Structure formats: C-alpha cells, structure tokens
Amino acid sequence: MGILGTMALVSAATVFLSIRATTGSQHRAVVVEVAARQRTLTERYLNDVMLVRAGARAAPGTTAMLLRRSADALLHGGLAPAVNGDDDEAHVAATTNPTVHSQLEQERRLIGDLTRSGAALLANRPLASVELAAGEHPGAIGDVARLRVLAALTSNVSLNAARTFAREADANVNSLIATQVALGAAGLLISVLLALALVAATRRQTAHFRSLVTSSTDLVVLFSGGGCRYVSEPVTDLTGRAEADLLGDRFLELVHEDDRAAVIDAGEQAQPRVLLFRLMDRFGVWRQVEAHLTDLRGDRHLRGVVFNARDISERMRLESELTRQAFYDVLTNLPNRALFRDRLAQGLARSRRARTSLAVLLLDLDGFKQVNDSLGHDAGDQLLREVAERFAEVVRPTDTLARLGGDEFTLLVEGAAEDEALLVAQRLLQSLGDPFSVSGRELRMGSSIGIVVSSGGKAGTEDLIRDADVAMYAAKESGRGRYQLYHPDMALELGEQLGLEQDLRDALKNGELSVHYQPEVSLKDEGIVGVEALLRWTSPKRGSVSPAQFIPIAEETGLIFDLGEFVLDEACRQAAQWRADGILPDDFVVWVNVSGKQLAVGGVNGLVRRALEDSGLPPQQLGLEVTETAIVSGAPGERARGELELLHTLGVRVAIDDFGTGFSALGQLRHFPIDMLKVDRSFVQGLETDARDAAIVANVVSLAHSLGVPAIAEGIETSSQLDSVRAVDCDLAQGFLFARPSAPAEITALLEAARARAAPTPPAPTPPAPASR
Amino acid sequence: MALGLAGSGCSNGAAGGTPLASVAVSEHDFHIKEAQKVSAGKVDLAVHNGGPDAHELIVVRGHSQTLPMRNDGITVNEEALTSETVGVLEPGNPGARRNLVVNLKPGHYVLFCNMYGHYRAGMHTDLVVQ
User: Fold this and answer.
1) Is A164–B54 a contact, with Cβ atoms under 8 angstroms apart?
2) Is A102 in contact with B51 (Cβ distance < 8 A)?
3) N or C: lower Cβ tally within 10 Å for chain B?
4) What is A399-466 written as a DSSP string?
C-alpha cells in the first residue's frame, strides 16, 4: 500500500509540474511574440515618421500608442494589442522577474524617448531639445540617425527582455525537466520495486506451495478435472516414470486394480481424509501408500484435491514382522508357545462344543544338549530347523506344530483320540529315522514324546501342556526314542522327583553327604596308586541314595555346583590328612570329578586353588576328571581348557573321563595337557562280548600311549575283564574286582598296609610316567 | 560578434609572477566608466553591468572617433577590427560581475558595447595604456 501511495503522489506531482511547464511555455511564447511585435511596431513607427516627413500618409501617433500599450501590457500584464491584421490580441501576465521588469521599464522609457523625439522631428524641433529619460548620450549625429538609434535601442531592449525571460523560463523548464526526470526515475524505481515486491510475493506463495510439495519427501499428487494434474518428484522417483507419463489417467494405471475406484472417488470428492492404496513401484512391486487428502477444489489456482502420501510399506512390513515375531519362532518359523496356547485354547473350546477329543503331543529331542555342547549352537540350530522340517512333513496342515523353546516341540491334533494320537507319535519318531547331516557329521537323533488326550474334560491349556510334559518325562525315563501316553500316576512319580530335589538340598545342609574313595591300582603290581573321590548320600528318610538317581537332578537344578565344591574340599582335606599322617605316597593322586556344567560356567581354577590352599595338599596330588565334551566344544570348552591349563601348570593332574563316548575332536586334545585317559566303563563291560568294544578299548589305550600318558580302565568287575585290559597294555584299573568305593577309614587301612609292605625299604615307588608334554 | 580572443586574454584572472593590475569597469544604460589610464601588462578588467539592459564589452586597440561602422550606421564593424581586438565579454545580464584579463601594450584602446544601438547611445570609452 505504501508503495502504491508513493506511486500516486509521484504521478500527481509529475502531472502538476507538466501542467505548470506547459503553462509556462505558453506564457513564454506569448511574451516572445509580444516582444517581437514591439520590434515591428518600433520599425513601423520609424517608417511612419519618415513617411509623414516625406509628405506621405501615415499614422505614427497610432503606432506610438500601440507601442506604449503593448509595452504596458508586457510590464504590468494585460492585453497586448494586435499589430497586424491577422494578429490576435494577446493576454500577457505581469512579469515577476526583477531583471525583466527593469528591462521592460527601460523599454517603456525608451519608447517615451523615441516617440517624443519622433514628434519633435515631425514638428521640426531640434532633437537635442528633447529630454531623454533612458540614459542615452547620443553624441553628434543627425536627427534621423538619432531617431534610428532610439528605435534600435527600443527594439533591442524589448528583445533582450524577452531573451532574459526565455532564459529564465528555460531554466525553469530545465529544472522542471530535471524534476520530472527525477520523479520519473523515482517512479520507475518505485515501479521496479513494486514489481519486485509483487514477484517476491508471488514467489513466496509459489514457494510455499512448492515447499509443501517438492521439498518434502511426500508423494504429492494433484487430482483435478477427473485426472492427475501434478505429481511431485518423489512420485516419479518411486514409480520410475516421468511426470508426463503419470498425468491424466496414467497415474491410475499404477494404482492397484482393487484400489483404483477408491482413488478416483477420493480425487473427486476429497473423501475420506486418509486413504490407503497400493501403488506399483519402478520394480513392479506393490507399495502400500497412505495418503492424506486436502480439498483445494475452491483454490482458483489448483481447483483439485491434493494427495499427500507416504510409502508405508516398510512400516507395515515391520508391523507384520513384529506380529510374526510375537507369535512365531524365528528359528524354525513354527508357531511359538504363545500362538500354540492360543490355538490350543480355541481347539479346546471347539472340542467341548463339538464333543470331540484332541491330542497334545510334547516332543523333546534326545541328546540334543550333547550336540549343542560338542558341535556348537550353530549346529544345534541347524539340527532344530531340520527336525522341524521332518516333523512338519508328517503332520496334517490343520494340526498345529509349534516349538516351545530349546529342543521342545508340541503338536496339537484336533479331533484325535488315543489311537490316532499314538499313530501320529509313531510317524513323528519314524520321521527322525534317517540320520541328519550337520556340520559335516552324520547324527542320529531320537525324540521322547509325551501324549495327552482331552475329551472335553475340565483341563485347560496349561494343564494339558503340563500333563504332556509329565508323559514326555516318563517316556524319557523309560528309555529314549519312545512315546508315552499320560496317565495320572505319572504326576505322582514326578512329585517324587520334586521331593528328591528338596531332600538333596536338605542333605547338603544336614551333612547327609559324604565322600567315598575307590582305589585305582597299577596293573603291573596291583599296588594302589590313587583313588577316585565319589559322593555318597545316606538319607535318614530314604537310606542310601544312588548317585545315578540324584546326580541328574543335581545337574538339572544347579545343585551340582555345591556338590562339586563339597567333594573337592572334602577330598583335598582328606588327602592332606593322609599325607600329614605320613601314609600318603608322594606320587599318590586323589581324583575328583568336575562336572561339565561347572567347567562351562567357569571359576574352577579359583575353586581348586582355594581348596589346595585351605588343605595344604600339594597340587600334583590332586587330579581332576573332566568329560571330553566339556573341553572340546565352543567358547565354554575354550574357557574350560584355559582354566585347566592354568591348573596343570600349577601341577594339578588332568584326566579325560568316559573317553570314547563324546564327539571328541582329537585334534583339539593334541594341544591339551592330559595326564591320563579313562576308558569308559560301558566299553569295559562289553569287552567279553563285543569285539567292537574291545577294539575301542585297545584304541583308547594306544591313543593314551601315543600321547605319552597312562590309560585307566574303570568298571573292572571280573578277572577276564582284567585280562582283557592287560592284554591291550592298559596301565591302570579300577573296579569292584579290586575294591568298592570305600569310606576314608578303609582307605586309611589300605594305605597303612601298603606302607607296611614297603617299610623294609625306603619309600621309593616308581613314579608314573609324568606328563612329559 | 567575434568569440575569439586577441592577444593573450583569458577570463579567469589567473596570473603568473607579476601582480595583476585590476581595473574596475562599470557599464550602465548607456555609458561605460573606467580608470581611463593603466600601465602596460596584464590587466584584470572587473566588469560590472549596472543595467538595466544586457551589455557586452569589447576591447580594441584604437580611438573611439575612428572605429569603423557597419552599413546600418549604428553598430561598430567588429569584423574589420579583428586584428585590433584584445578582449571580448559576451552579453551579460544586468547585475552580473565578470572579469576579463587582457594583455595591454602601451597605446590607445577603446572599450565599448556593440549591442544594437548601444555604441551610438554612448557606450564606449577610451583607455590609454602607458
């Protein structure tokens, strides 16, 4: 508005000045005209005087009168008389310029001098007698010449006055022109500024729209007049089409057929406010798009509906992925526990309504933990995937096969009674018949299956899963690779197990546990060279409880850590006592079992050192028996090896227990400090009947010797077994044939007896081959 | 009216080593007044037009009684005096003060206004340079 107002003022000033300049110019023209007439009148007066003097007719008096009137008009303003017939009277404004004014006054005086001199000449009076008013000093010239000089002065002064006036007017006009030029320039400048301001405002508006459109990553589409009128760059990027190829109906070609009508409607009605549709991207993939509609049909520039859309495919994929992760097992892609529960709840509801039955099968892989421990978790995962695939092949699509976690699977078979459930279990076990190829090894896997069948009773989902678990446990107990149908007695048995666990905890506290020792003898002279410390539990309630009964429970519940520590401390203390009593030979070794679990968790190094320090037993008189699987697999095995190596450096002996039963990688044993290999009792027991077992024993012994360490056969119960292990050059033996695990007092007696035998000579028993590596 | 300057006259009054003699020249309808006697050399004519009409000033070597006239018998024949002209001031408005520096040698000079009728009306004066 300010700019417009200034423009108006400038224009008004310009027009005013132009009018003034025009008026001034007109006035100047009049003055110059009148001044020119003065010159004419002056000459005419001179001629008139000469004519009259020559006797001709003329009217110098009239001319003189016109001269005076004209001069008066110039001087004071008014009508200047016409001089010739075609002249008009001219209106002259009074002059305001003092110079012009004085010049015109001088002219007025000269006219007086001229006309008086003319009159004197015509009256034959001497001109010298005429009083001159204008300051002439004519000197000595003739009268006519003098009159001509007066006429010249008169016409000259009027012309000079006109010239001065014109110069002044010119100066005015020049300043007017300058002012007008300045105003014009100002106007031009203002116009330019105004134009720039308008352009800037337009740009701002355009930029505003553009910024909404182009600077955002939104997909912007304008629908107008039944077709697409504009698409933003992100749309062309997404679709891989040029803008021209998207206008009109062509954008709709890329909209999913099922969504097209909705998009067209929305483009015309601006409803709904938010629209979901599918748009094909440059790779031919459907993208899910969420568009927010803006109704700009009333906007005279756009006259359409603007879609501000976003590609939400990724978001939706994530959402569905999250949903999937919530209900599916990532490893096997089978439903997880949550989804299984849900399906089971629905199945139960259906079975109650329809009065049908359903079966839940719970499967647990046998020996899976061993695979995981010895071959690593990647191998374990691969095995689980392959098992899941085998199971999936033998179940109906309507059945729900799920992975509950670990190596536990469940299967829901709706409509199945006992017979059918058993058949399904059979099929599942058969599916595992062929070996699996995992990490380059052939593995045979079995599974224990617990089955529970519901016939519309009151049992809920959790009850059914728990019962199937009990049945599965029973199947496992009864031997692996079996299935078992649930019956209520099983729960009682399970209750018994739970009771055992609690009793074991109490036993530890109440001192019901003790350590017995089974001698290890040299096969050369059958002399006792060491003992294996073994845990005994004598319960006041249960009597003597077999380790075979409580060790698995201790392993499962973590009680094994406490038990292990107890045995270690007790064995060290006892050995130190024997040593203090002077009955322990220097090369005698007390062997303590270290569970794989304990090695996997770590801390054995510290535990053993503390036990040695507390008891004062020299490290070389303590031996640790570890299973091969505990030291060969993965990161835990590595840590175990590290800890054992530290202890070995200290002098502690290390033996591999149950050698031959694990999935040993012999290569890893090569660099591991071993002091003894222990042949598993299962091979010893088969020595007499199974040639393969005999071969294994021979090989283990041979392997021990090649590693430079002795081999010991455990579980020797018969003399023929003894002969067999002697035959393969086994160094040491242990078993009922020599001695049962005995209380410390009995061992004390043995040691004393041995010492007595050796008494005649100083104690210098042959040292066993030390670990030379 | 001749525009060129004879001699070494210039209009800004700048001078070299010798001090510049200044001569007041007063013009009026219709006569010229000045000192009438100056020393030879550069002379600064300080011309004031007392009006009321416009006047010019022409400086020529010679005597006022012998200046050649044009055929009209009213104006001086300047063209015939070109070689004698030592300085010219073009017509100036009444009230104007202007300077004309002329280099004058000893001798007689005439200062006059040659506007139509002015010379004959008395606008001339003689100057003797010693």
Assistant:
1) yes
2) yes
3) C
4) SEEEEEETTEEEEEEET--HHHHHHHHHHHHHHT-SPEEETTEEE--EEEEEEEEESS-S--HHHHHH
Q: Report the gap between the CA of A111 and the closest CA in chain B (Å).
A: 14
- Whether the Cβ atoms of residue A304 and residue A225 lie closer than 8 Å to each other: yes
Contact (CB<8Å) B54/A149? no
Backbone angles phi, psi at B61, to 5 degrees: -75, 130
Walk along chain B (130 residues) and give the pLDDT tens digit of each residue: 333 333 333 444 444 456 678 889 999 988 898 887 888 888 899 999 998 888 999 999 988 888 888 887 888 988 888 888 999 988 888 888 999 999 989 999 999 999 888 998 889 999 999 8
What DSSP state is assigned to residue A742? B
Residues A47 and A291: their CA atoms lie apart, in Å, by 105
Residues A763 and A527: their CA atoms lie apart, in Å, by 13
- Give the residues across from A526 on adjacent strands: none
Question: What is the tens place of the pLDDT at every residue in A598-616?
Answer: 888 788 999 999 999 999 9
Q: What residues in A contact B51, CB-CB < 8 Å?
A: 99, 102-103, 106
Distance set, CA A386 to CA A361, A406, B90 (Å):
19, 14, 124
Min CA distance, A113 vs chain B (Å)?
12
Q: Give A43's contacts (C-beta < 8 A, 6+ positions apart).
A: A151, A155
Q: Which of B31, B51, B115 sits opposite A156 (nearest CB)?
A: B115
Give the number of other CB atoms < 10 A from CB of residue A141: 15
Distance separating alpha carbons of residues A682 and A676, to the nearest angstrom: 18
0.80 surpassed by pTM: no
Distances (CA, A) of A302 to A211, A228, A230, A243, A306: 15, 12, 10, 17, 9
First-residue to last-residue Cα distance in chain A: 103
At A224, list the tokens: 């107008």
Which long-range contacts link A259-265 to residues 24+ away (Cβ below 8 Å)? A264/A226
Nearest to B29 among A99, A134, A145 (CB): A134
Q: Where are the beta strands (DSSP E) in A688-755?
A: 711-714, 732-734
What 3-state class would DSSP assign to A198?
Answer: helix
- Tell me the nearest-neighbour CA distance from B44 into chain A, angstroms: 27
Q: What is the pLDDT of residues A735-753, one digit of tens each?
A: 999 989 999 999 999 999 8
DSSP codes of every residue in A269-307: H--SSEEEEEEE-TTS-EEEEEEEEEEETT-TTT-EEEE
| Cβ proximity of A380 and A374 under 8 Å | no
Candidate from A136, A148, A164 with C-beta closest to B74: A148
Can you give the pLDDT at residue B61? 92
Asked if B116 and A152 come within 8 Å (Cβ–Cβ), the reply is yes
The predicted-structure confidence for A188-234, as pLDDT tens digits, reads as follows 888 788 888 887 776 665 555 555 555 456 788 889 887 898 888 88
d(CA A747, CA A736): 14
Q: Which amino acid is at A670?
A: R
Cβ-count burial A368-383 (b if 16+ within 10 Å, e if not): bebbbbbbbeebbebb
Task: Work out whether strand A358-366 and strand A400-405 pair parallel, antiparallel, or are unpaired.
Answer: unpaired
Report the pLDDT value the prediction gives residue A766, as an integer from 0 to 100. 47
The amino acid occupying position B123 is: M
Query: Which residues from chain B sit within 8 angstroms of residue A157, using beta carbons?
Result: 53
CA distance A77 to chain B (A): 20
Regions of chain A with pLDDT less than 70: 1-4, 7, 18, 20-29, 84-87, 169-170, 172-173, 202-217, 491, 493-495, 633-636, 660-670, 759-773
